[in-house]
């Protein structure tokens, strides 16, 4: 009777020792690491820059009438600005010397410009960029002016000059300088902005009148970050 109990206890202890010494190893797993690079983003023009419909005359003579007592000859240049918020300015006539410096004079045949239909700013949207990231905007006309030409006008007919570009982020009241602007993308990585500019008659006398029709030209807007 005692011997049987000893055998049972021996098997029970042995079983515990076998279970306690067992170990298990799983197969190793190889894991890939990836990264996606997206340095580019989408950039689209929503509306082109329009100066509306104007009545315009270029200066036909550099002679000063002398009405203000000045004998300084000069060219008068008429300008009209469409701001980036699409607010428009009253056309202004400036008198310039042959070198382009402003003078005060009484031109005999000044340039003129009046607005028949108001213009509107160009608008753009950048999307797919990093959220809350500064984006730089620059237009080609900030240093080199853009010329608007009527393809149906005689070669001797005057053209228009467009320069002094201004920038404004949609939904803000701040207007960027003529050198460009920096705007910040939203939580979705998007930003919308407008571009305005100034149109001018030539800084040279001409006896040829502006021809009726559409005057067109191209400028480039660059966006980078």
Description:
- Strands 1, 3, 4, 6, 8, 9, 10 and 12 form an eight-stranded antiparallel β-sheet that branches. A three-stranded antiparallel β-sheet has the order 11-7-13, with no helix packed on it. The protein has a two-stranded antiparallel ribbon with strand order 2-5.
- By secondary structure, the chain is mainly beta.
- It has one helix and 13 strands.
- It is elongated.
- The chain has one domain (42-224).
- The model is unreliable at 7-18 and 65-72 (pLDDT under 50).
In helices, the fraction of residues equals: under 10%
Counting DSSP E segments of at least 2 residues, the number of strands comes to 13
CA distance, first residue to last residue = 92 Å
Radius of gyration: 37 Å
- Overall mean pLDDT stands at 79
The ordered H/E elements are: HEEEEEEEEEEEEE
What's the overall geometry? elongated
> Unreliable runs, pLDDT <50, ≥5 residues?
7-18, 65-72
* Number of spatially distinct domains: 1
Please indicate the percent range of residues in DSSP E strands (runs of 2 or more): 25-35%
Category by helix and strand content: mainly beta
Number of H- or I-type helical stretches: 1
The major beta sheet can be summarized as: 8 strands, antiparallel
């Amino acid at each position: 009777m005692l011997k049987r109990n000893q055998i049972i206890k021996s098997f029970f202890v042995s079983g515990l020792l076998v279970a306690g010494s067992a170990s298990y190893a799983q197969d190793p797993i190889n894991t890939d690491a990836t990264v996606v690079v997206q340095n580019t983003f989408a950039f689209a023009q929503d509306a082109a820059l329009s100066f509306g419909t104007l009545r315009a005359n270029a200066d036909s003579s550099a002679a000063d009438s002398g009405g203000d007592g000045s004998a300084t000859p000069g060219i008068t240049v008429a300008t009209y600005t469409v701001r980036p918020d699409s607010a428009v300015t009253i056309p202004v006539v400036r008198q310039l010397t042959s070198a382009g410096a402003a003078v005060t004079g009484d031109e005999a045949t000044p340039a003129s410009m009046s607005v028949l239909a108001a213009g509107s700013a160009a608008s753009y949207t950048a999307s797919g960029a990093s959220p809350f990231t500064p984006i730089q905007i620059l237009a080609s006309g900030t240093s080199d002016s853009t010329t608007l030409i009527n393809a149906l006008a005689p070669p001797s007919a005057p053209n228009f000059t467009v320069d002094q570009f201004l920038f404004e982020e949609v939904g803000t009241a701040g207007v960027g300088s003529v050198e460009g602007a920096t705007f910040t993308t939203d939580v979705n990585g998007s930003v919308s902005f407008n571009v305005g500019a100034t149109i001018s008659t030539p800084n040279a006398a001409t006896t040829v009148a502006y021809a009726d029709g559409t005057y067109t030209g191209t400028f480039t807007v660059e966006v980078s970050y």
